[in-house]
Design brief:
homodimer; about 725 residues; mainly alpha; 20 helices
Chain lengths: ~725, ~725
């Protein structure tokens, strides 16, 4: 059993090896003609420049936090905090590097070999990212565990694990917010002036913002998403381990539980998350080899190829987790059943899948909601917007019900596994490992997700390099496929965010009580009292419900301001560069200035919303921990609802526009199409800035509270 | 002291007398030429027809609920439930009747005497509604108290008061939802085909939906708002009385509190809300006499005239409440201070005012947010929408912080007044009476609020009767004034909703524990346990946060579907009635069919969202009361945030459009104006359907839970 962390480390290294292999495979492909290669390099240059500057800003923030952790919590925590931050940044950087190499190569593959050649290439580009994310996160956690904690020692080295998680969260938050603002400022700027004012198509080489738009796809959808999933994956593994560690080891631990949980009982619980991650990693590696296409160019066959990898990986994980349960959770070790916790994990996996399906139903043009938005476009942009908003809000209902079911199933599993006297802990542990289940197959799920922006960029390059329209048709088909598969990945991300945050929240409760000195005011006041009817908790709940609204407002406004700077610049170029608008031979836009504007604006804009997530819980926590408890709970439930609403409404508008562009309701250029473009533009910051950043916001706030719990009391 | 309920009754009757006096004053004015009178009658006919049918539907619902209450709770409760419902419906009906008389008369006054004559008339029309609402609610409550409860008797007749409140809530919910759907379906339908497609101005007589649009103003903004405020006002008075009654009288009362609270202590607390309402009513009557204009037509002078009434009424209330406190809360009766609870009341009043100011800042064209939306319209409808959404969301931040301050101040007041052993009860009682403070001046506040739709309708009649454009300018000035004053009223409504719901929530907790038989499973499980970290409470919190989103989605979609039916009909008429579009002499649209369509569609659409509010808490309550507690708390905080967001975003879009129409950013017909019209259309169901209905939703769900508390355990 003691081998499990080492197994996890080995599987993580195998994942990283696979990423390196795919990296080589992508690199050896041709990046096409000179123009395509030049475009690719321009995009890569812009993306690198942004990430470098972003990481400079974030490094300052990380330094401040590291000092705070060293002083207020525990000195070694600063080390693991920085370790988590660096690995997370590295995962984003690697993913972005390969994505900016794979784009032109995918265009060239589409040109020379059609979808059967382009799809595997784009997928391999995505897989470099997918396995870097999962590999680095799992390797980092295993190293922290092996080096600082050892096997089953009763110390509080587990604070170092949560600090690692906070490091990952810090990067994820800023990457999501900064990258999200960048990508949407460029996108909205390019669209509003290009498509709407100048009447030129998307990705037209005359549009000065096109390069910035493509850079944005890489820094937002690839690097931002990579850091996000690194954080989710790492956080999901940390949560159950921290829960058990804080409950069982700390000196002030609840006597009953501590007595009850012998080492035989604790160790399997501590190692189970690593075991699940190990199985998921192996399963992902196997799954990734199954993503290949025949000669078919049919969209459904291509779609099957992508889904096959994910489905097989999940199947293997389910079987493996049952086996793992049988090995770890024996009655000898004090468990009531071996299958309880595997049920939690599998339940989590299935619910994550189901939430992804909900997202798909509400955002794919195969189903009613998107078709409804397209129909509503017939009566103009106002009805397009209203239909999208109501659809997004309805999808909240379905998603929350699924999360509720997931929580109940996961809790049931925990209850079945744990002895009677530790039922409550068992329920929460079940919830925590359900999130691990959702994210176990991160390797392959992120590969499929990261494939989307690569295909999108490939289309952009085809357009800018003025290739045959047939090439664009191929990349468009791949891209639209990406939109649906990405929905599943988002389902896992958001579902796991809710469960992980809930588990971290419970851990925070435990940690607070244990960290408090016996003679503190906190203990004198009766410890933590989170009765929702108490006014201090209720005010916290209110403030927590409000914060996601303010956060969404700030990020939407940030996109608006940054987009405006871009719009002014594009207009200026069309006005001042003679022959640009007409597309005169040899006249080129000044793309570099647009890239610089987006970079500067988005970095400036990411500071306030990013800082909010860290400062607000700290301020509240130092005033009143009961209020902080209410605050975290309020933010969690409302933020989850807003995140689902914004992501699904945004995705639906995007696909409604694409559905119309396929020739429905008058097709491109018709009035319904114009209305749908309005919807798409409104949806851009919803689905790519505010919505995804919200997931991280919730976890950052919870994990900040958890790390600083001992400082509050 | 025993005279207070009688004083309240007398003041309520005085308010009703004033309403009758104003009714006569409005009625004796001229309704203008034959065409104007004819239009007025058409509108009145449509409004009456709708209300009649709406009440038929609602009567069926009320009957079912009455039976449930009689069987599951207490037989007499069915009587007071029906009494509350009937009075609430009556208040809406009276308000609507006078509003549909005052509209043409205001047009005529504007034509013959300008704003100095039109403003007082429109205000008097509104005042009939304002004093009917406050008078009927206060009279009803006083009668229930005097007849069924007597003075200070220790019985559980207080359940009859909460049943009265539930009756009012039931009507309010359906009136807000049904009326809100009606008014916006007609408005959106009229705008989309009229202004956008046919290119004819608002309220043009050629547009077949214009009459329906004007009917909508009366059934939604007048009758719906009247029932809403009846419910808020009544509910705010019921909450503190029920809180004290359930805590002090019931047999299973918390021993400590029961022993501590002698009759000397309890009676002033029971009667204080009536006393505050009495003072507010007298102050409102005085304030209403101060709303008069000189000869000035300057908008700021007119605005001052309206504000003077409200401000004086508030000043009188503040002074009166301090006096009332000195009389009731003596140390002889066991109070620690006489000024504590007056501070709670005054705090509530000031916070309500401040929330109104926040609404004004975010929705008036004098301030940044609306100007920002107008600027954003330069770059098209998408940026208009995004700017409105982010502004609305930011206003949530300010409003929640104010509510938090209000809660803290109100709690502080309660703590100061109550003896040490009953501090918690004192805090909650303080919060409950703060809501009474916010609504004490309902009489004059609603008068000012109801004045708005009358001025709006007057403008519509001026347009349809093809009067001189100068008349329309006068009514437009009055109307835009109404938008800002209405913001203040909305601030009171939404602020009091949060506080009342919180107080009712606490009462629900107390009622549950007291209603449970000693040998019930509920008591065996340890009674109510609302720790937010418990999974059952947390799932409730999640479901509660989700419900307002689903409710908003359902109501928005309902407006969309009803508007679509209207659009089809208007298009049909323009297509099939020869000469209509060209405005040929003698060709009239078939307005009656449009009215019938709106009526039918909105009644059909109100059923599901309305039923949701009652059915969901009942279902959850019968499954698990802890989950229900979490559910109510989650719905309260998230619903409040969504309500503020939707109301303020909608109001801001509306006024941004009007701001552009004043000649800014290119004025009417420019591209920014078209973009602003899109914003306004999106905002219509936000601010007039989903947003205001949300307030009631929260209270209905809490009060349903409270009334049925004894049935759950």
């Amino acid at each position: 059993m003691e081998a499990i962390p080492y197994l996890a480390l080995v599987s993580a290294l195998a994942g990283l090896g696979l990423a390196a292999f795919y990296f080589g495979a992508v690199k050896k492909e041709s990046s096409g003609n000179a123009r395509m290669t030049e475009l690719m390099e321009e995009i890569a240059l812009g993306a690198r420049a942004f990430l470098k500057q972003e990481y400079t800003y974030v490094a300052a923030f990380v330094a401040v936090m590291a000092v705070l952790i060293a002083v207020l919590v525990v000195p070694l925590g600063a080390v693991t905090y920085i370790f988590g931050a660096v690995l997370s940044a590295l995962a984003g950087y690697v993913g972005m590097t390969v994505a900016t190499m794979a784009n032109a190569r995918t265009t060239e593959a589409a040109r020379s070999g059609g979808p059967a050649k382009a799809l595997p290439l784009a997928f391999r580009g995505g897989a470099v990212m997918g396995f870097s994310v999962a590999g680095l996160a799992l390797a980092g956690l295993a190293i922290v565990y092996i080096v600082f904690i050892g096997i089953g020692e009763s110390d509080d080295g587990f604070e170092l694990l949560t600090a690692f998680g906070l490091g990952a969260s810090s990067i994820a938050l800023f990457s999501r917010v900064g990258g999200g603002i960048y990508t949407k400022a460029a996108d909205v700027g390019a669209d509003l002036v290009g498509k709407v004012e100048a009447g030129i198509p998307e990705d037209d080489p005359r549009n000065p913002a096109t390069i910035a738009d493509n850079v944005g796809d890489n820094v937002g959808d690839v690097a931002g998403m990579g850091a996000d999933l690194f954080e989710s994956y790492g956080g999901s593994i940390v949560a159950p381990m921290a829960l058990i560690a804080f409950t069982a080891f700390s000196i002030d631990a609840n006597e009953t539980t501590a007595n009850l949980l012998g080492n035989d009982f604790i160790l399997p619980l501590l190692l189970f998350p690593f075991g699940v991650a190990f199985i998921g990693m192996i399963a992902s590696i196997i799954g990734s080899f199954l993503v290949k296409t025949g000669d078919s160019t049919d969209i459904h066959d291509l779609s099957k190829a992508l889904h096959r990898g994910t489905n097989v990986a999940m199947g293997i994980t389910i079987a493996g987790v049952l086996g793992l349960g049988a090995w770890l959770f024996t009655t000898d070790n004090g468990f009531d059943s071996f299958w309880g916790l595997p049920v939690s994990v599998i339940g989590g996996l299935l619910v994550g899948f189901a939430i992804g399906k909900v997202a798909e139903i509400w955002t794919s043009d195969q189903f009613g909601p998107v078709k409804g938005i397209a129909s509503a476009s017939e009566t103009g942009p106002a009805t397009t917007i209203l239909k999208g908003i109501s659809g997004g809000m309805l999808s909240v209902g379905a998603s929350v019900v699924l999360i509720g079911i997931g929580i109940i199933v996961a809790m049931y599993g925990g209850h079945q596994a744990f002895p009677d006297a530790a039922q409550e802990l068992g329920g929460i542990y079940g919830i925590a490992v359900a999130a691990v289940g959702m994210l176990a197959t991160t390797g392959v799920v992120v590969s499929v997700d990261a494939y989307g922006p690569i295909a999108d960029n490939a289309g952009g390059i085809a357009e800018m390099a003025e290739l045959d329209p047939g090439v664009r048709d191929v990349t468009d088909a791949l891209d639209s496929l990406g939109n649906t598969t990405a929905a599943v990945a988002k389902g896992f991300a958001v579902g796991s965010a809710a469960l992980t945050a809930l588990a971290l929240f419970k851990t925070f409760e435990v940690a607070l009580v244990q960290a408090a000195p016996i003679d503190s005011q906190f203990i004198a006041d009766g410890g933590l009292n989170l009765n929702v009817g108490d006014v201090d908790v209720f005010i916290g709940l209110f403030l927590g419900a409000m914060l996601p609204f303010v956060f969404a407002a700030l990020t939407i406004d940030a996109v608006g301001r940054a987009a405006n700077e871009m719009i002014e610049e594009v207009r200026r170029q069309f006005r001042e560069i003679p022959g640009l608008r007409e597309g005169k031979e040899g006249v080129k836009p000044d793309s570099a200035t647009c890239v610089a504007i987006s970079t500067k604006a988005s970095l400036k804009e990411m500071i306030i919303p990013g800082a909010l997530a860290v400062v607000v819980p700290l301020v509240i926590g130092f005033i009143d921990v009961d209020t902080l408890g209410g605050f975290l709970a309020g933010a969690l439930v409302t933020g989850f609802c807003l995140a689902i609403f914004m992501s699904n409404a945004g995705g639906a508008w995007d696909n409604a526009k694409k559905y119309i562009e396929q020739g429905n309701h008058g097709g491109k250029g018709s009035d319904p199409h114009k209305a749908a473009v309005v919807g798409d533009t409104v949806g851009d910051p919803f689905k790519d800035t505010s919505g995804p950043a919200m997931n991280i916001l919730l976890k950052v706030m919870t994990i900040v509270s958890l790390v600083f719990a001992s400082a509050f009391v």
